[in-house]
Amino acid sequence: MVGYLVSLAIFTATYALFSLGLNLQWGYTGLINFGHIAFMTVGAYTTVLLSLNGVPLVLAVLAGAILAGILGLLIGISTLRLREDYLAIVTIGVSEVVRLIALNEEELTQGTRGVYGFPLPLASLNPNLPLRLGMIVILTMICGVGVWQIWRWLGHVPQGADRSVPLRRAALGRQRLALGGYLLCLGGSVTALWWGFAMNTGFLGLAGASAIAALGCVYSRFSHPLKTASHQSWLTHSTIIAVNLVLGLVLMVYWAGVMGLYDYTYKAGLMWLLVVILGFTFWQLQRWVHSPWGRVLKSIREDEEVAKALGKNVFRYKLQSLMLGGAIAGIAGAFYAWQLTFINPDGFIPLITFQAWIIVVLGGAGNNVGTLLGAMIFWVYDAATRFLLPSLVTLDDARLGAFRIMVIGLLLIVLMMWRPQGILGNKDELTLGR
Question: CATH classification of 2-125+264-430, choosing from 1.20.1300, 3.30.310, 1.10.3470, 1.10.150?
């Protein structure tokens, strides 16, 4: 079970990194990119082919990211001065051209036979106990920051105004107690989910009860929790409970990662490295999108004519966004190849692009925290339905896969009817203030 959860964490983090690039292009800049997989393909093939020829892995990954960014430059130069629908069409075409080149250029990519036997990061590492404990501490710090970000989002509901110093101090103490209780509820959810999947499904009910208790901890941080809670719809309550359950599953995966690092394996080391790169990329993106550069991107997304009137070079900013998002996807492609330990063109189909779109739309466009949350929800759904649906419906594997896609499509339709901006998105930005 530990090995499966570690692999699940790798896929979740890889898709989160991949989707962060798409969120920068579309969520922040408004560029419709339906061929995002092309950047991942370039990054993956460049990394593995260079590493097979003796190039150090760090330089191979950087080369893959640079080439993916150059691909974004070529796409942008030819399309960004045209209407948005041309960009969408061209990106789909480019992704298929890149895949067909990888399929037919057998001397370079070995075609359908694929590429395997390439060097893997940390594969030969045999860390001693202090190094393993240090890796666990770093992983814990990154996950702790993630839990804190979710806790902050859960508090984005109307609060009473505590203006006096004594009231502010009381509110601070109440928030600390609420956070402590919330962490205890998360711990209960993690324990119950672990026992539920490993021993008896009856424990899943306890996980749900812990998630409901976490809802009470969220509302207890306010001056008037009952009044605050009464103003929330049942859909909001359900969303908070569902997010807490998903977070419990994610922390269960974190615990599996801790055990994997303690009894070190290659997959656990790859997961740790990927989480560190994801955390660094997320941190840098947060800095950039909240800088004047990021505000220009948002203004272009809202109305590029206004940005032009303010003297901004819209074409240059769009090009930067497309190239940077492509470079991030190229890095994700390297980790995608390292996780599979084998790549061929069939692994880079357009469906992966639309899975990234699902993640961005689900979490909320123009919100990097939402992208991470969307990746978690998507892969929790994928893992849960992989095991639960066969016991509920009698379909063969091919029809079951199609049915799972239909179900997530239906869930997206419901989400768009209820929260068209996504879970963490800003509705005012989505509607351009109208």
Answer: 1.10.3470
